[in-house]
Specification:
This protein is α/β, with parallel strands linked by helices and 499 residues long. The chain has 14 helices and 17 strands. Strands 5-6-1-7-16-2-17 form a seven-stranded mixed β-sheet, sandwiched between helices. Strand 10 and strand 11 form a beta hairpin. Helix 2 packs antiparallel against helix 3 and helix 9 packs parallel to helix 11. The N terminus is likely disordered. The structure holds zinc ion. The site of zinc ion has 6 residues, from loops. One of its GO terms (molecular function) is hydrolase activity. Keywords: Membrane, Transmembrane, Transmembrane helix.
Length: 499
């Protein structure tokens, strides 16, 4: 029964084609090139003068332009933030000094430790002193404006995209919970049957190459699939009550194994600060405390690696799965308000918020539902109606890559930042935090920091989507990865070349 549905889903799964959009131009590069053009134009008028007047005029013009340029540069640099100036300097320094990867001194093979801090919104690193995270940033490579999650910006879809390089439509985990349209089976965050988990996660790729992997929690890591058996001592069954310190100690203990037995790929997962973010929103002292605690865990890890003499050899990739935005009781949309246009019964809804996913019975015209819902939402008569737009999934913006799976319900609603959908009005008033929105929304961004022999020190790179991380890890480990949605050349754009 189950295997039939897997076959159907697998066979209808289009081959993932590397199809990354070009990175947006770096604004600092644009400024630099403007400067360059400006200065070159001031030096071009060195042609043979025809008259003395013309020469003097040109000289005066040149002087004026230079003076203006100097004044502009002074104003620009004095008004620019300290971090921008530091960034530009660091980037230039790293680019000037480092071009090739640093050799390993103690380990025999490259080792990648992939760490996730759940819901670590980009910018949290500035909420409070985070000396350990900043040590990794200043001696490593950082996505300057954060890591872009995949849509929907939820925990399970994103963690599994990070380790497979696939968009949710291709790796199958299209939501934290959903219903298989063929079998009626329900996926939950506790589902470990391999039929749900498509694609090839990094731990499986690593084991396929005869190497060892270890997972200290990661969505999908407990699933026995292909060559990955979730081996005892190298694969932990999820238990949120395990203290963070114990998780760090276990990972450190792997480095006490004989060199040839040290897993080359390890994961480490922390539930914070997502856990607090949902309850209190992103701007609460509880978040600040949670961020400080994550920083202490990174400090404990660094200290343990230094004690073992392997800190500079180990590649640490520190990421989050998504960001967080504040939500409150006034930013609500009630489906019952659409009744004058169309009744949307509860039984059609697969998830409400922030990802509104609707699967009406097959007898109902999908196009009709979408048209009537949007008519009501845009009528001006539905509270906050203009904050929600409903789509047939095939008509969602292509950049969301959220259509090519039968598991994705046929009608999807996109909400504006911070708004929520509920079935009907209630007296319940709550403020907190949420994620799951369009991944173009800046508050959904998280962090990317790479530290290790193949990452230049102090380098800043433009933001990129987390589906690139799979190729990055296989490239560092020097193994062939499975087909995925990342760009084959991405690792060369961010890593130092081999020595
Ligand atoms: Zn999460």
């Amino acid at each position: 029964m189950g295997s039939d549905s897997v076959d159907v889903l697998t066979s209808t799964k289009p081959t993932p084609i590397p199809s990354q959009e070009e990175d947006p131009p770096n604004p600092s590069t644009a400024l630099l090139s403007f400067d360059t053009e400006d200065s070159s134009s001031t030096t071009t008028p060195h042609q043979k003068p025809t008259t003395t007047i013309l020469f003097i005029s040109l000289l005066l013009l040149t002087c004026t332009t230079l003076a203006a340029a100097v004044a502009f540069a002074f104003l620009f640099f004095s008004s620019a933030s300290q971090s921008t100036t530091t960034t530009a300097t660091a980037t230039a320094t790293a680019a000037n000094i480092e071009t090739t990867a640093r050799p390993l001194t103690k380990l025999q093979k490259p080792v990648v430790l992939l760490i996730s801090s759940d819901g670590f919104r980009f910018g949290y690193q500035f909420k409070t002193p985070t000396p350990n995270i900043h040590r990794l940033i200043s001696n490593g490579t950082e996505a300057e404006l954060g890591l872009i999650p995949v849509f929907p910006t939820l925990t399970f879809p994103n963690h599994y995209s990070i380790v497979t390089g696939l968009y949710p439509a291709y790796h199958g985990i299209i939501n934290n919970h959903f219903v298989d349209p063929y079998t009626g089976d329900t996926f939950t965050m506790g589902s470990h049957e391999p039929k749900w988990w498509l694609g090839e996660p990094l731990w499986e790729t690593v084991v396929n190459h005869g190497l060892k992997a270890a997972t200290y929690f990661w969505p999908g890591s407990e699933v026995k699939k292909g060559s990955w058996t979730c081996p005892l001592n190298f694969c932990r069954n999820y238990n949120g009550s395990v203290p963070f310190e114990e998780r760090v100690d276990t990972v450190l203990n792997y480095f006490d194994l004989p060199n040839s037995e040290i897993p080359v790929f390890m994961t480490l997962y922390f539930e914070d600060p997502d856990h607090q973010g949902h309850q209190v929103g992103p701007d609460d002292p509880e978040i600040t405390d949670a961020v400080a605690r994550i920083d202490r865990m990174i400090g404990k890890l660094i200290e343990g690696l230094e004690k073992r003499g392997v800190f500079e050899d180990v590649t640490i990739i520190l990421v989050g799965d998504h960001g967080m935005v504040g939500t409150c009781d006034k930013k609500l949309i009630f489906l019952e308000d659409l009744a004058p246009w169309i009744e949307i019964p509860k039984s059609w809804i697969q998830s409400y918020t922030p990802l509104l996913a609707i699967r009406p019975p097959s007898s109902v015209s999908l196009a009709d539902v979408v048209a009537k819902m949007n008519e009501g939402l845009s009528s001006g008569k539905v509270q906050n109606g203009n904050r929600l737009k409903v789509y047939l999934k095939e008509e969602l913006p292509g950049r969301l890559h959220y259509a090519a799976s039968d598991r994705i319900p046929p009608i999807i609603g996109l909400l504006e930042e911070g708004f929520k959908v509920e079935q009907k009005e209630s007296k319940r008033q709550e403020c907190g935090g949420a994620h799951g929105y369009d991944n173009a929304i800046f508050s959904m961004r998280t962090i990317f920091i790479g530290h290790g022999p193949q990452f230049a020190r102090g380098r800043k790179v433009p933001s990129f989507e987390n589906v690139q991380i799979y190729n990055l890890v296989t490239s560092i480990l020097n193994i062939q990865g499975a087909a995925n949605n990342g760009t084959a050349l991405f690792p060369t754009s961010i890593l130092l070349s081999s020595p």
